Amino acid sequence: MITELEKFKGFSAKNLPKEEGLAPGHRACQGCGEVLALRMVMKALGKDVIVCCATGCMEIVTTPFPQTSWQVPWIHIAFENAASVASGVEAARKVLMRKGRIPKRHVDILAVGGDGATGDIGLSWISGAMERGHDFLYVCLDNEAYMNTGVQRSGCTPYGAMTTTSPPGKKGSGQVTWKKNVPAIMAAHGIPYVATASPAYFLDLMNKVKKAALVEGPAYVHIYSPCPTGWGSAGERSVEFAKLAVETRIFPLYEVIEGRYVISRKITKPKPVTEYFKGQRRFRHLSEDQLSFIQAKVDEEYARLMKLSEAT
Amino acid sequence: MGKRVGIEVSIAIAEAVKLARAEVIAAYPITPQTHIVEHLSEIIANGELDAEFITVESEHAAMSCCCGSSAAGARTYTATSSQGLALMSEILYHPGPMRLPIVMTVANRALAAPISIWNDHQDIMAQRDIGWIQTFAENGQEAVDLTLHAFRVAEDRKVSLPVIVNIDGFTLSHVIEPIVIPDQEEVDAYLPAFKPRVRLDVKKPVTMGPVGIPEVYTEAKMAHNEAIKASKRVILQGWKEFAEIFGREYNPVETYRSEDAEVLLVTMGSISETAMTAVDAMRDKGTSVGLVRIRLWRPFPGPEFRKAAGKASVLAVIDRCLPPGAVCGPVGAELRSIFYKMPGAPKIFSFVAGLGGRDVTVELFEEIVDKARAYAKKRPTELYEVIGVRER
Q: Taking a C-beta distance cutoff of 8 angstroms, is the pair A244, A275 a contact?
């Protein structure tokens, strides 16, 4: 059992940290779920953190030189390698503290990337870092496409969704593959802590991030991040969509603690998936057949998750 | 005083990295670099060096780890070759402008296709413009000494740039030579601990590697270029102090029997020793020939080279890289540029030799000199020539 989590009481509405690692003032789009989630992540972690950021929306909108939104040490190298950079930072701190070259002090190391950086191009780099067991936290801010480059499909784009490289047409009907299950891939590494989170459930999100930081060794949090620009949805409805994704069981919230699946929020009376699709331009072309397929597959995936939680 | 021992060059380089007290090493195995990091892992496993060894899953990740480690303030080292260097390529462009002083040994090797594990300079020439300081070692002693010099220069606050020490794969990396391994005290005197001006520190937060919007991008690139040009002073100073402590002298360009030579061979790396033998043989036959060897490749030592070339009327430049469709090899092109429209400039002929492990022999050098002398009288139709090609 992970002993680090025993003392952690959790955040509540009454004891929310006042510190902000990510300063107000950045260039994200209105209604960006990703920057909202990132702010919560940083709030949960406090100021004793070094951030290694992958190329993507969050890197671009927070650091147009000479401005920066970061109140904590931050480094960006490239698109796919945030986990490797974090490995280097962690190893350097370890040896420098051991040799007495820097003061002994626990500092969290956060690697952060979008779904493209995490689930596609960076998968091998993250896998390597987790296999090596570096003490760091990887957060994926999943907005379900390569949004920064203009809404191209990624491995995390949901089935049927329209992007500029999965356009519906006479022969195509949007993304043809089911969303890649990145949390499961991470859990398969046997790392101590994996979780999914949503900015619509902000205390849950912050608690999971804090727990992920507290455990020794690699941890992974996959955060659902609505993107009004990419999804063709109203900016003011981002939190609502994040909530609907959970309530329809499209994006279930759970933890995998040392291989044990724990569902954070059981959805006993799910809303139909169609309710989530309404108001998102990326899904408006979906046929009845596709909708039924998605509903069936969502139910099946949720049932599988329930079984995993019972079995572990 | 150091100790003179018979030792494989790769092992000697690993010993130099140990003496430099490297703190983080991230590496992925690739031939012919492997012996270096294998020996380093042994050194660390035996407790002879207090360092973190990150066994990464690729060379790309190795260089990425190195960037993170250097940014966090640790003395950082890696080594690679060929396809591995090519795989790193994307990340190699980052530590220069970000001013991260990483030291890397490149055991030079050919690039596929066809796949070849043997030596030439195609791998590093494909990375010529990554913005690292680059030197070429001629022998094992030089490989050791340049490694220590690399850390010293890279981490100097006036420089703060990454450095590559090139050694020829196999022909240098895998040979056993008598090499003076310096004393720890001498190295400590030469190489103080790494004290970065800025590092990733929660007490003093900095943003590293931000977006270069069009208003600042050119200036950022310019600043990097200025830094690498200005590094030459520190490089020279580093060699001067090296001589004072260790007694071995190094210069950006070396010459051999060049003073009165009509034809000068121009080389980089370990073939220079064969070239010296060839010069001796040709001198014995009455040919007026000498050698100029380039040790410092980036920043390119233009004035030093012009001075070293002296009054020679013909330069026969040997490139170990064939850039397809180009007008000549990269070293040849560099030299044509520095002499361009200079009054009394020598005639420069570009030769490509020793690709993919093909031996560059004394006879081959003689052939090159003969051809260069003939071309000086009657210009060749081609701008460069590949030497030693088998017709059948």
A: yes
What does the pLDDT look like over B79-106, one tens digit per residue?
999 999 999 999 999 999 999 999 999 9
Measured in degrees and rounded to the nearest 5, phi and psi for residue A222 equal -105, 115
Query: Residues of A with CB below 8 A from B74's CB?
Result: 91-92, 95-96
Per-residue pLDDT tens for B322-340?
A: 999 999 999 999 999 999 9
Least confident of A13-27, A121-135, A145-159, B176-190: A13-27
Using the Cβ of A175 and the Cβ atoms of chain B, whether some distance falls under 8 Å is answered with no
Q: How far is CA B141 from CA A120, A241, B135, B144, B224, in A?
A: 45, 66, 14, 5, 31
The pTM score is 0.97
* Other CB atoms within 10 Å distance of the CB of residue B129: 12
Q: Is the ipTM of this complex over 0.95?
A: yes
**pLDDT at A1 (0 to 100):** 59
Place of tokens 């003939």: B374
Percent helix, strand and coil across chain A, each to the nearest 5? 40, 15, 45
C-alpha to C-alpha distance for A169 and A153, rounded to whole angstroms: 15
Of the residues B90, B208, B218, the best mutation for testing chain A's interface (the one with the most A CB atoms within 10 Å of its CB) is B208
CA distances from B96 to B26, B226, B295, B314 (A): 18, 11, 20, 36
How do A254-257 and A260-263 pair as beta strands? antiparallel
> How many CB atoms neighbour CB A75 within 10 A?
26
Q: Is A124 on the interface with B (CB under 8 A)?
A: yes
DSSP B164-183: EEEEETTTTTT-EEEEEEPP
Q: β-strands B296-298, B133-136: how paired?
A: antiparallel
